[in-house]
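We modelled the chain as a single entity of 292 amino acids. Its sequence is:
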Amino acid sequence: MPNKSKDQHGYIDFSNTVVDYNEGDVVIYDHVDVLSRSYPLKPKTTLLGICCQGKIELTVNGKILEFVPGDVFVCPPNAKVEKSEHGDDLDGRAISLSDHIIQGLLRDKMETWNHMVYINRVYKISLGESCAQEIDLYYQLLRSKLENKRRTPSYSILQALLRAMLLDLCNVLEDVDGPVDEQKPSQGKMLFNRFLSMISNNEVKRQPIATYAGELAITPKYLTMLCLKYSDKTASDWVIQYTTEDIRFYLKNSNLSIKEISAKLGFSNMSHFGSYVRKHMGVSPSEFRHRK
């Protein structure tokens, strides 16, 4: 049943847009033209759309992009979609995903995703006809599961379908040579990319920003400035995002005790770990582990 998206999750800011499924972390739009009623858009989530019929022209952060059937739109959080122009024959789908669900689904591919979406700013992916049909099949299967009146699909099934779709997109992204803003990445872009790689590859990700900045031979202030420039997130936001995803992963996918997870992720004691989880995830570690 279509419903209005809501602001209270802090993820979706399309308050006047009718959506077809809203779980908070995952929002589905069966028809992309409904988004045109909300321009300009500045989503707090990653918005993925595919053009199935007709064509649409979008202005994203001042760049004009034209999408035809088979093209996928990748809009990272806080990118501004200023306007669109399209004909009456436009048909397409869109899915909005929160940062932490993308992080959880693409743990082993996050460097590819971050490099292309934040460093090279690839907002448009042109798929071959067969690949575009496969992406649409993922979408149709997802909708079929959601519309099954006899049985509500488990969240793990929805995650598996979304992960498969995102992995396919990552495989395409790895083959993309452009378009990019510059032929050679700037020093700032390279530093930002190294910062994300450092967080991703550190087992203990929750470290002072000064530690990461020191390894990059820059000041913490300059590191945060770079992060804001290329992602609209602070350096601390990125560390929190990666840290909370590690917490989610180990609480849900390991047999480690909460004390062992706390130590593994670099927390000095259980009390500090519990306070951190409550602050950033809304519940205690034990409650999160046992929540379905």
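As a brief sanity check on the tokenised model: The CA atoms of residues 213 and 220 lie 5 Å apart. Confidence is low (pLDDT under 50) at residues 1-19, 178-182.
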